[in-house]
Amino acid sequence: MQSNGTFMKFLMASTLALFLAACGGGEEIDTTPTDIEPTVAPPPPPPIDTGPVYADGSQEQLAALAGDTVLFAFDSDELTSASRATLRAQAGWLGSYSNVSITIEGHADERGTREYNLALGERRAVAVQNYLEGLGVDASRISRISYGKERPVSFCSNESCWSQNRRGATVVN
Questions:
Q1: Coil, strand, or helix at residue 148?
Q2: How many domains does the chain have?
Q3: Judging by DSSP bridges, how do beta strands 69-71 and 142-148 pair with one another?
Q4: Rg (CA), the chain
Q5: Is residue 34 situated within a structural domain?
Q6: Looking at the DSSP assignment, which residues form a beta bridge with residue 144?
Q7: In whole angstroms, what is the distance from residue 53 CA to residue 151 CA?
């Protein structure tokens, strides 16, 4: 039995020697930094959201930059100060896009006869056209049409809807 104990001691000593030989006998690893460090480009900045992009000379661009609608008081074709400001912005925009032609649409609310509202819509379209021409927009670029009460944008029978339907709309051709 003692030989069995001696064998075990020998086996443990051999295992320990093999373990130490495996750990200590390898090459040393150079841990000093090298002169060349890898460069990593920083990620690109996120894109800047500039809002919607509209095609030059488009209806969407006119509406966004200058407004494409002016409103009128009940039974009136007189331009308000707000309407004149919108039309000045439209004239400036049209000056930037000399190849663009427009149609001025005259509209009325649902009150009154069809014939009366067609005539009122025409007077409103004429008022818009005259103001734009007075600001230097060439008359050959402007056409007009009256829809009277036939094309409302709001569909209720009260002042909040009627006021939105009494309008002159500038449409890019």
A1: strand
A2: 1
A3: unpaired
A4: 41
A5: no
A6: 104
A7: 28
